[in-house]
Amino acid sequence: MATLEKIRSKGLLLLIVVGLALVVFIVGDLVNSGSTYFQENSANVAVINGDKVKIRDYAEKMDQFNDVVKLQYGNNINDEMTEQIRQMVWESTVTEKVIGDECENIGMTVTKNELADMLVGNNISPMMMNNQMFFNENGQFDVNVVKQFITMLDSEEATQNIPYEQLRLYRNYWRYWEHAIKTNRLQEKYTNLLNAALVVNPLEAQYAYDNAKVSADAVYAMKNYFAIADSTINVSEAEIKALYNKKKEQFKQKQSADVKYIIVDIKPSAEDFAEVEKWINDLKNEFSTTEDIAAVVNSNSDIQYRGENLVKEQIDADFQEFAFTGKAGDVMGPIFVDNTYKMARIVENGIASVDSVNLSNMYLRRETAEATQALADSIMEAVKKGADFAELAKTHSLLQNAANGGEIGWVSEMELEKKIATPAFSTPAKGMFQVKEGNDINLFYVNELGQKTTKAKVAILARTVDATSRTHAELYNKMKQFIVDNNTIEKLDAEATNNGYVVMSAKNLDINATEINNVKKAREVVRWIFENKEGAISDIFEVEDKIIAVAVDKHNEEGYRSIESVRPQLLSELRKEEKGNILVSEMTGKTMDQLVAEGFRIDTVRNINFASTYAGSIGNEPSLFARIANAEVEKESAPIKGNTGAYIFKVINKEEAAKPYNEKEEMVMLETRENYMNPYLAIEALKEAANIEDMRYKYY
């Protein structure tokens, strides 16, 4: 039977597998949902090619994604992971719709029998075969493990013995993989059809070979465009408008906003530091003399005392030497490190122990506590007489590692609960002990002991200095008053510096953004921005350890960016073009030696062919590289305008590939390359052509 522990133990690889599957997962039946508690127009999170995506269905799939991730991380899903899941759901929703429409038009589908064959049949999906959840004891994919998992999901035994929430996670996990594999297969069919229709011809193969067969080394002289001041280049309004119209399609934009904001870190004040310093010094005497060190530490410290025996590397780095050179009762500190005041007391040292133990366990439960204890006693007695603990675990344990004989593996004392660690590190190899869990019993077997070592028991009293409520209130009230007194964007700009603030800007902030520049977890702030008019100034938001106030400078509607908003880009391009003309004129008729004497930079670039676009010493200069590849050896070129400057070059060496042209090999190589790229390009083209109304900002 597959297990929660097994899933978590394989978290890293499973995360990779799940991450890949998320990309192709179908958010199913989004356009067929029934009535909702919302009004018809407000219940949609999106409209894709005329089909409505209901917020209820979207939220359900968000929950399902969360459940899958929980099996990797327990319940520790942070805000960053949540945002990633939201984006994955959105991308999956759009991909499903645009590909689904195309497949429906041509009658392409994945049948139930086909799906079953990929899950438990003779043609298992690679996605299943790479999922460690379904590996056997030998570390190999086993379809029988899959079948056992499916059977378990609806078995009476599972319903009785597995907590409801855990069983719900398992069921969502399986639904997820079914859907992901079905979607992946449909996408494969569609892209395979596209690839079959795109055939590489011999002319393409010959062209690709010719472009790469000759490589050249060249020496060049160049001057960067930065050498000419922008102020010396005159650009007319007519030129700006002409370039804007020429490149207008590049200036398409989604709905966005330009904002200004002030932000303050909530940091402790000098008074806050002084209070914590006084607090720890006042506690030093009690900390040094108390006979109940656990009570003193655990009622005062940020670091709890568990009474663990620790090796040197497991102790706070600032107290490692002290822990093993002092004697019991010695106290070090207080010291101040990384905004934390702390001191340490040696409780005991010179403790002979082992660094780790290799454990197995079985979790026992019967109708009564007495029956459970009787079973535990009989198992312990059987093992003492030679029975195999691992085999008994497979039969009796309720834990999901039972299939592996209850194996836990190597663990340190620090990794275990105190009630398990103490007996685990005092029990000899091949010994057993039991830990009561309510009416249940967790029976442990010590397979092997680790290396002998010396440990210490150290209590640490520590407190990190945080901003107090008083400091927080002072920062908040000061910013609040500043906003009240300066209630326009113009006033904010004018008075910020005088009040110790800096006004920052964020341009083209996406309506679905979760961050404002480097300000994380700012989704609530972004929603406020798009719910308010230009010129509006917000109240204060609290974002993690910061307070922030924003002003809506401008709303940018979906369409094309204005000529004013892209004017700096246009000016830069026009100036670069004119600078190129100036430098080419300056270089015309001169040799490379003459240019070098006039201060031009000289350098060498190597292994350039016609297909080259980038070289480390020179950057991105495809036009220059194409000319180098086709130039004659030892002949200086005419001046050339590049991306970053103007050039004259001379090819000093050329080499032709020794490998002769092989039409079949070249065609296979090109087909492989295109088959790899075409699916992505096709899907992106479908998305680009789709009519998508994104309304996520209303809900997230």
Task: Describe the model.
- The structure is a single chain.
- The protein has 700 residues and is an alpha+beta fold.
- The longest helix is centred in the first third of the chain and has 34 residues, at 164-197.
- The protein contains 24 helices and 22 strands.
- It folds into 5 domains: 4-196 and 692-698, no CATH class; 210-252 and 565-656, no CATH class; 255-267 and 468-557, Roll (Chitinase A, domain 3); 270-353, no CATH class; 356-450, Chitinase A, domain 3 (Roll), CATH 3.10.50.
- The two termini are 38 Å apart.
Number of helices: 24
In helices, the fraction of residues equals 40-55%
> Mean of the pLDDT scores?
87
Spatial order of strands in the largest sheet: 17-3-21-20
Query: How many domains would you count in the coordinates?
Result: 5
Low-confidence stretches: 1-41
Q: Total strand count, please?
A: 22
C-alpha Rg (nearest Å): 34 Å
- Separation, N- and C-terminal Cα atoms: 38 Å
Q: Label the overall shape.
A: globular
Structural class: alpha+beta
Reported for the largest beta sheet, the result is: 4 strands, antiparallel
Work out the strand percent.
15-25%
